[in-house]
Amino acid sequence: xxxxxxxxxxxxxxxxxxxxxxxxxxxxxxxxxxxxxxxxxxxxxxxxxxxxxxxxxxxxxxxxxxxxxxxxxxxxxxxxxxxxxxxxxxxxxxxxxxxxxxxxxxxxxxxxxxxxxxxxxx
Length: 122
Known about the structure:
Elements: E1 2-7, E2 10-12, E3 18-26, E4 30-39, E5 46-52, E6 58-60, E7 68-73, E8 78-83, E9 92-101, E10 108-112, E11 116-120
């Protein structure tokens, strides 16, 4: 049992900020990587940002570079996305993803949260 639960979504005005969180729980041995994806109406799901937990290496979509920051609290097994300078085109459902091992001998699989809505509108 692995659960990823996003929170922090809501309605913000253009130029505003929002912080998303993702809490991982359940039978977790390790989390190798985590990321945020988003899906806007009528569009395919796209990568927003990823982080390799062991190294801290991050990767961002070009559209959010300089505005969004992904981070983890490994002890608490939480993932965050600080979003600044929000634009209407950031409006989407944001999904948390984790590459998770459930035991030391198990392979890692991707798990998804249920998503949280972010709406940027005046």
